[in-house]
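Example 4.3 (complexes with small molecules)
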Amino acid sequence: MIGKKVLITGASGMLGSNLLSLLGYKNLIGCSNDFDITSLEIVTAKLNQEKPEIIIHAAAYTDVEACEADMDKAYKVNTIGTQNLVNYCIDKDLLFIYISSTGIYGERKNVAYTEFDIVKPTTVHHKSKYEGEKVVQNHLNKYLILRTSWLYGGKITHNKNFVYKRFLEAKSKNIIYADSSQIGNPTYVVDFVTQIETLINNKQYGIFNCVNKAVSVTRYDYVKKIVELFDLKCRVAIAPDGMFSRTAPVSKNESAINYKLSLLDLNIMEDWEKSLDKYIQQLKSEKDG
Ligand SMILES: NC(=O)c1ccc[n+]([C@@H]2O[C@H](COP(=O)([O-])OP(=O)(O)OC[C@H]3O[C@@H](n4cnc5c(N)ncnc54)[C@H](OP(=O)(O)O)[C@@H]3O)[C@@H](O)[C@H]2O)c1
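Answer. The structure with NAP bound is encoded below.
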């Protein structure tokens, strides 16, 4: 176990809760509801008190549809909230890790994005996340900006456990529907946390895509694989147009490759099917045991 003090924002969230349970650091501080990142006063007081050596900023307003309806909240949490944390870090020797999304690349290509592609987000959520990235880049030297996608894993009780939710749905129905119009990378949170540790240990800084390997994988492919790995009889069908209609103009292509990690020979992220299998086998053995 490494002795550095690590502060995690968004510790009750899907990623934050997994960071808290998986990171190999002795001194982890998880911040949730009482730590409102939109308040400069609260942020500064807490950080002055804790004096972390690493901050992993996983808090965000993540409801993409709700962000369209409440742009002010999206920018307040995702951009100003990030700025409040960054203000504390300026001129201090600490590492700031900002969790971002491959959704910020937008809709300019139909194959996977690399870190060298131009970023042109299409939704309010992704625009506000990208503005957060810019705040980090413009003010700090020791930072990691990690763009990830379609995260899954962790406890079955977490309300954002996509894999377990699909299991429950498929267990109780003969047919379920999934969207086939968007591609992305289902990404196992355990792999992501290991990749974060690898980057820290190798003293890397800058922007990195961090996703499991997946080529042209749709939600439909993903849900089909979940049902297959759980050995369920339920049929997975392609959702008819309009079934999962959204107000947010989400890009049809959120897929990425870990180009920079590969160039540096630091890419530890597995193939998506292999990691999904690992997680589902673990869930099955927990259920049986
Ligand atoms: N999950 C994915 O598939 C995915 C994909 C790409 C990128 N990401 C990025 O990964 C990070 C973590 O996402 P996630 O899936 O873990 O999201 P999540 O489950 O929605 O968790 C978000 C966390 O942020 C906290 N939060 C929201 N507003 C806050 C505020 N004003 N002050 C302090 N904390 C606040 C939430 O606390 P409350 O619960 O108390 O509101 C929650 O703990 C985010 O930056 C997200 O953009 C996620």
